[in-house]
């Protein structure tokens, strides 16, 4: 039986502003497809331009929150999942809170009075997406909120923890607190490489928490960037997954598993010195809406079944047939 609050996620809650744009828009704002970056000053006008010139969907997002929502959807047990992060004290924050509660997720947002709720531009061209995140309030999360008795009680209740690597840019101290708690209490701690820039520019923070990771998720681009940053001189995803799985661990309770997705190519899973590959559910191109949230959904499906690649593939297959990280009322996964 899945108990209340068994899975806890912590990360950057963002309101996705998603639209199918054109190549000219990408060129204007120097955007590359299949990438995830933090917004610079040159990107700030794009959010209003998208809303003005394109048909826009507003969807509660942020990598970790997406994965937790999908896990909750797969589990269909209200309150099984919890999410912690920072939003602004504004209408977008209220909207996300409402959406999360409707989805059955127990959200405990820290509400910042000085910054607006974070947004993420999701630019879709030919079904492929690029993410430009303006963190705003999401960047204001403090570990003091996590340490409050009512919030730390959520940590103590949970048995599984998942945090996207993006949160390393915001509150590495909060990540470390949860990671050390998991190791000390034989709980499972999981993270995601999340984006090439995390592997490149937050290498030290990532390395500090890596020994605590029982499961590491990522995609092939992130894996290859991780390899390059660490001087491994290999682009072979299977070899990289194996090397990450063999990185020293802080706890011997679980052997590390590395799970690398490769779009339509097989998922690579490295564990106990061996590599296995799992085919994904292939989708006819005419059914592809956009790939935004596919990786997050894979993780959510995986988490819902506690180590099931098949569930991850199912969830990501559903999500890429819909706008953003959205899903029907109930899953038909068996």
Keywords for this entry:
334 residues; 9-stranded mixed β-sheet; 5-stranded mixed β-sheet; UDP-N-acetylmuramoyl-L-alanine:D-glutamate ligase; 36% helix; alpha/beta
What is the element layout, followed by pairings?
Elements: E1 7-10, E2 14-20, H1 23-28, E3 36-38, H2 46-53, E4 57-61, H3 63-75, E5 81-88, H4 91-102, E6 106-112, E7 119-125, E8 128-134, H5 143-147, H6 149-157, E9 160-164, H7 172-184, E10 188-192, H8 196-201, H9 203-209, E11 215-219, H10 220-229, H11 237-245, E12 257-262, E13 265-271, E14 274-278, H12 294-304, H13 309-319
Parallel strand pairs: 1-5, 1-9, 2-7, 3-8, 5-6, 9-10, 10-11, 11-12
Antiparallel strand pairs: 2-4, 7-8, 12-13, 13-14
Pfam families: PfkB
GO biological process, one term: AMP salvage
Protein name: Adenosine kinase
**Fold-level CATH name:** UDP-N-acetylmuramoyl-L-alanine:D-glutamate ligase
Helix run count: 13
What class would the helix/strand composition place it in?
alpha/beta
- So, the CATH homologous superfamily? Ribokinase
Q: How would a textbook summarize the main sheet? A: 9 strands, mixed
Number of strands: 14
The portion of residues forming beta strands comes to 15-25%
Mean pLDDT: 89
Summarize the amount of helix as a percent range: 25-40%
End-to-end separation: 17 Å
Shape: globular
- Radius of gyration from the CA trace? 18 Å
Low-confidence stretches: none
Helix-strand string: EEHEHEHEHEEEHHEHEHHEHHEEEHH
Catalytic activity: adenosine + ATP = AMP + ADP + H(+)
GO molecular function, one term: adenosine kinase activity
Pfam families: PfkB
EC number: 2.7.1.20
């Amino acid at each position: 039986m899945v108990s209340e609050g068994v899975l806890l996620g912590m990360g950057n809650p963002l309101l996705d502003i998603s639209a199918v744009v054109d190549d000219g828009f990408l060129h204007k704002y120097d955007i590359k497809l299949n990438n995830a970056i933090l917004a610079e000053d040159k990107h700030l006008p794009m959010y209003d331009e998208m809303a003005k010139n394109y048909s826009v969907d507003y969807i509660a997002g942020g990598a970790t929150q997406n994965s937790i929502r999908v896990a909750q959807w797969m589990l269909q047990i209200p309150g099984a999942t919890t999410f912690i992060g920072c939003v602004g004290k504004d209408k977008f924050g209220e909207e996300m809170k409402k959406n999360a509660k409707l989805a059955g997720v127990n959200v405990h947002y820290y509400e910042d009075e000085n910054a607006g709720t974070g947004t993420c531009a999701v630019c879709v061209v030919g079904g492929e997406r690029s993410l430009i995140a303006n963190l705003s309030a999401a960047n204001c999360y403090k570990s003091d909120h996590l340490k409050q008795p009512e919030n730390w009680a959520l940590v103590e209740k949970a048995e599984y923890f998942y945090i996207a690597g993006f949160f390393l840019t915001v509150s590495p101290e909060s990540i470390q607190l949860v990671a050390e708690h998991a190791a000390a209490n034989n709980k499972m701690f999981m993270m995601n490489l999340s984006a090439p820039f995390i592997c490149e520019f937050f290498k030290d923070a990532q390395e500090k928490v890596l020994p605590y990771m029982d499961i590491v998720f990522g995609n092939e681009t992130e894996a290859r960037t991780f390899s390059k940053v660490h001087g491994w001189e290999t682009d072979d995803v299977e070899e990289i997954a194996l090397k990450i799985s063999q990185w020293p661990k802080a706890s011997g309770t679980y052997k590390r598993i590395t799970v690398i997705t490769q779009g339509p190519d097989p998922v690579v899973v490295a564990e106990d010195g061996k590599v296995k590959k799992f085919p994904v559910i292939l989708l006819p191109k005419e059914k592809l809406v956009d790939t935004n949230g596919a990786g997050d959904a894979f993780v959510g499906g995986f988490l819902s079944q506690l180590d099931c690649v098949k569930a991850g593939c199912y969830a990501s297959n559903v999500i890429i047939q819909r706008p953003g990280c959205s899903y029907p009322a109930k899953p038909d996964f068996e």
